[in-house]
Specification:
The protein is of the alpha+beta class and 783 residues long.
Length: 783
């Protein structure tokens, strides 16, 4: 196999073009269309027929062959997979003080246009957590992946001691593959030491080189002692000192204890000609980097969010396994995650080190490595940072990720996928927070929140619900009469290790709860949420805040519970602020909770309620986006459906509001009430035949004379809306609920519904009002 290479040439990328595509950013060279096959380096592009200014805010570049020669993006206004009207790009890596970017594009068809049947997807893979389906892949034949001519491109030759460039060309003289660093004097050697047919440690027969990594070459070999089993040899230390090689082997023997189905298996540790090697299981699949590069090469752009998130969700338990054993992976990136069969494998354990070993060498890759690592060393937080960066690199067409944006996320407004999916953006912001304390606490928490985000995004893309049971919040109370604080979910806090529960699990009786919770004693965590809500119900929100103040994420008892307590504290303070009638303060607090737990529908719902309560139009638009996000993923959360409808009404979008309410599932107890509300909105002048058909189907299914009160109210609202539409000159179609739409017939149907409702109403005054309305509705007659 012949490998040709040249510099990438894209701004901010130091990669090399191999067979037409960059081995770092995965894109075609600057000026070359991504979908064009490129078996060899592209020649310099001809002068453009016409060039113009980029036009993007803050960029002075020129558009050449359709892309800017400075920022690498398509000119403003040209479809490129990014938002073309995203506002100023701040470059901030974390949202604060409210969202700065709002999609403003609530799509009610996501709720109302979904199939009534399930998606019917057959789960063929263990990847995807049952949310999406990732098809299995065929194992690659090992003999086809060895390099015919192993060599390291000059622009990837760096000193392993001081990280300065070495082995570079000077004039007509090619760079040396071996020699000494001119900066620190350390020896370097980029030649592949092992050749095909060589026998290592009397056991492993080398088949060839696979790749060059930070610790040197990686080789494919057969184990003569185990039936010719394929395996991989990876160098531990690039040195000619046998003593150092022996020490390196001894230092890494703890890796033999690692045993996890998503981590490559370590077979052995050996020495050969002064070099120490790890002998690992051969994993014959494709890396995430290879999958992403192949997709771009075929013109498909970055990986879909659902695909990339599914892969990382599958590999996070492997990182958690290492962390629980005091090990840090250090160099996580898409190159080191392999999709094999119907699972993933984390490979390349050469950089793994013990958390308590400050003297061990540190390995990392620019663009993935956390900014604090060179100073503090690797930690659990820095490992999780690399996972967040990997997700961003996989899903974005982002040339500057290793240069200008090496230690920050890009501007959110530059990428439509980040604008469209709020939870995804907040997940990336927390995962890649500049300060370690701002990131996820552990791999388990990160996986839990990524699972929630995956449900959100998948539901938004295919309009199929992805309901998810949270371990951290109760479901909301099923209500359609407005999203007040009392209808919002409650945090599920763990039992306190020292303080016994007193009110947890009792019936929701505010007075009884407060009697049992003596104010002069410390409360168990599991009691705090109930007591705080009881104070809110009695109007004593200052006492609620005082109780919530007992939640201390940094306290000595909070070890292992910091993430849960941190989110619950902000959330409960926000609920208290809503109960006190201070939505502006509530919005700040509930956004904090949402930022820490972006996969929790409860946090998004509560934040939306606070935004909507402010009454500010821009915040109403944000609230509508969040309500939609929650309702699409799980329409049984009818409080989110109702919140979206109320917000759309406040924005003057009555027709959409009425349609949204039809998304309440047909089997839900509040289906009739939701349709009634939709018909009431239609009566204001926004008649919609689809809404009327849904309501009419329910009315027709319930037998006259035996309707429940809710169904009688629905019939009353439906025929009232139809009469208003006809009187307003609107064409409502030939039939309604199986009956003709002649005005007299509609009036008689409305009268019958009002009489049924009056008969079922126990309140005398209300009954008289309904009878009077029925009399006014009855069509004129000469009898």
């Amino acid at each position: 196999m012949t490998v040709t290479s040249t510099a990438c040439g894209r701004p901010g990328c130091a990669g090399t073009i191999v067979d037409g595509y960059c081995d770092t950013c995965g894109l075609a060279p600057a000026g070359v269309a991504a979908s064009r096959p490129a078996p060899a380096p592209a020649p310099p592009p001809p002068p453009p027929a016409a060039a113009g200014a980029c036009g993007r805010p803050g960029c002075a570049g020129t558009v050449v062959d359709g892309y800017c020669d400075t920022c690498g993006l398509a000119p403003a206004g040209v479809g490129s997979g990014r938002s073309v009207d995203s506002g100023p790009a701040t470059g901030a890596s974390q949202p604060s003080g409210g969202r700065t970017v709002t999609s403003g594009r609530v799509d009610v068809t996501r709720l109302t246009g979904r199939s009534r049947a399930s998606s019917g997807t057959v789960r063929r893979s263990r990847i995807g957590a049952g949310v999406v389906d990732i098809a299995p892949v065929t194992t690659v034949d090992p003999a086809t992946v060895v390099m015919a001519d192993p060599s390291v491109p000059e622009n990837r030759r760096y000193c392993t001691h001081c990280d300065k460039p070495v082995g570079r060309s000077k004039g007509d003289q090619p760079g040396r593959q071996q020699g000494f660093c001119s900066n620190c004097g350390a020896r370097f050697d980029f030649r592949a030491r092992l050749v095909a047919g060589e026998l290592v440690a009397g056991q492993y027969e080398v088949a060839g080189a696979l790749a060059h990594g930070g610790l040197g070459w990686i080789y494919l070999a057969r184990d003569r002692n185990v039936s010719g089993r394929w395996c991989v040899l990876k160098g531990l230390l690039d040195t000619a000192d046998p003593g150092a090689a022996e020490a390196a082997v001894a230092e890494r023997r703890f890796l033999a204890e690692v045993a996890h189905p998503a981590i490559v298996e370590i077979h052995n540790f050996v020495q050969h000609d002064g070099q120490g090697y790890i002998v690992m299981e051969y994993v014959g699949g494709s890396s995430l980097k290879q999958l992403a590069t192949a997709r771009r090469k075929d013109g498909g752009g970055p990986l879909p969010v659902t695909t990339a998130a599914a892969y990382l969700l599958a590999v996070l338990p492997a990182l958690g396994y290492l962390h629980e054993r005091g090990l840090i992976y250090c160099d996580f990136k898409p190159d080191n995650v392999i999709h094999v069969g119907d699972a993933v494998k984390l490979i390349d354990l050469g950089g793994v080190r013990r958390l308590d070993d400050p003297e061990a060498a540190i390995f990392g890759t620019p663009g993935y490595q956390a900014p604090e690592v060179p100073v503090t060393g690797p930690t659990v937080a820095s490992d999780l940072y690399t996972v967040g960066r990997s997700l961003a690199v996989l899903i974005l067409d982002w040339p500057g990720w290793q240069r200008a944006d090496r230690e920050r996320l890009p501007a959110r407004g530059d990428f439509e996928v980040l604008v469209e999916h709020d939870g995804l953006w907040r997940f990336l912001a927390r995962a890649c927070a500049p300060a370690p304390a701002g990131r996820f606490v552990d791999a388990e928490e990160m996986a839990d929140q990524l699972h929630g985000v995956l449900c959100q995004v998948a539901a938004a893309l295919d309009a199929q619900p992805r309901p998810r049971t949270s371990a951290r919040f109760t479901p909301p109370r099923p209500r359609l009469d407005g999203v007040g604080w009392a209808s919002l979910p409650t945090p599920l806090l763990p039992n306190h290790p020292r303080v016994a529960n007193r009110v947890a699990g009792l019936a929701e009786d505010a007075d009884a709860t407060l009697r049992l919770a003596r104010a002069d004693e410390e409360l168990s965590w599991a009691d705090i949420a109930a007591v705080a809500r009881a104070y809110c119900e009695t109007g004593v929100t200052s006492s609620a805040d005082k109780v919530v103040g007992q939640l201390d994420p940094a306290g000595p008892d909070a070890e292992g519970f910091r993430a849960v307590i941190e989110t619950a504290r902000s959330y409960l303070h926000g609920i208290s602020a809503l109960a006190a009638g201070d939505p502006a303060r509530a919005a700040v607090l509930l956004e904090d909770a949402y930022a820490t737990a972006p996969g929790e529908a409860a946090c998004a719902l509560a934040y939306a309620a606070a935004l909507a309560a402010t009454g500010d139009r821009s915040r109403l638009e944000e609230a509508a986006d969040l309500y939609e996000q929650v309702a699409v993923a799980d329409p049984t959360w009818v409080v989110a459906v109702a919140g979206l409808a109320d917000t759309l009404v406040a924005l003057g979008r009555q027709a959409e509001a009425a349609k949204v309410l039809t998304a309440v599932p047909e089997t839900h107890p509040l289906r009739a009430e939701a349709l009634t509300r939709a018909c009431q909105i239609m009566a204001t002048g926004s008649y919609d035949r689809e809404v009327a058909a849904a309501a009419g189907e329910r009315v027709r299914a319930s037998r006259r004379g035996t309707r429940r009160v809710a169904d009688a109210e629905l019939a009353t609202a439906l025929y009232g809306a139809a009469l208003a539409a006809v009187d307003g000159g609107q064409d409502i179609g030939p039939t309604l609920a199986g009956r003709p739409v002649d005005r007299n017939d509609l009036a008689r149907s409305a009268e019958a519904a009002l009489l049924e409702l009056a008969d079922a109403t126990p309140d005398a005054q209300r009954r008289h009002e309904l009878l009077d309305t029925a009399a006014r509705t009855r069509p004129w007659s000469m009898l």
